[in-house]
Amino acid sequence: MNASTADRFTRAIGAAIGLALIAALIVAARPAGGHGGVLPASLRFSAALDGAVGVEPAAPKPLLTSGPMRPGSHASGSFSLSNQTGEMLAVRLRAKPDSTALDGTVQVRLESRGQTLGEGTLQALRQGTPEALRLRPGAVVTVTVVAWIPAEVETGYEGSRVAVTLEPVEEALP
């Protein structure tokens, strides 16, 4: 091998090492993709007892404990409502979160008997479900709660822990 060939070989090795170092720096400096680097949110739903409407499980026992939630995460749970009166009742459910931290971020859907009672933000459910369950005396129904953080959410949920109590709001029907 002559001096000119050795010189070219050394320059090629040096250029390759330099390019590898630059690539390593770019990869190391790149921010973490997705939402893996931030603290997740968590939700806990329970249902409050009422004199006219029974619930199972009743607070403080949760009907839904989400675990770590990030955008795209879903959690679901269910509970039963029973009419403990001798009258026909229309029952709506109202959310009472212990914090406003996830009000505009978390989406919630409440369903029973194939009917959506309410779907929207946690904040919207503070007003109660638009649809009411009609319960005959002694009737028992199952309500499913589905909560999620939409995949397009980028911030505003990080580290939030919110406990939500669902309260039955009833009115007698003729």
| SSE succession | HEEEEEEEEEE
Overall pLDDT level: 88
Distance between the termini: 104 Å
Strand order in the largest sheet: 3-1-10-5-8
What do these coordinates show?
- This protein is of the alpha+beta class and 174 residues long.
- The protein has 1 helix and 10 strands, in the order H-E-E-E-E-E-E-E-E-E-E.
- The chain has a 5-stranded mixed sheet, with no helix packed on it. It has a 5-stranded antiparallel sheet with strand order 2-4-9-6-7, with no helix packed on it.
- The longest helix is centred in the first third of the chain and has 27 residues, at 3-29.
- The radius of gyration is 27 Å and the shape is rod-shaped.
- It starts with a helix and ends with a strand.
Give a short overview.
It is built from one helix and ten strands; from the N terminus they run αββββββββββ.
Keywords:
single chain; rod-shaped; alpha+beta; 10 strands; five-stranded antiparallel beta sheet; 174 residues
Q: What's the SSE blueprint?
A:
Layout: H1 3-29, E1 42-47, E2 53-56, E3 64-65, E4 74-83, E5 89-97, E6 107-112, E7 115-121, E8 133-135, E9 140-148, E10 161-172
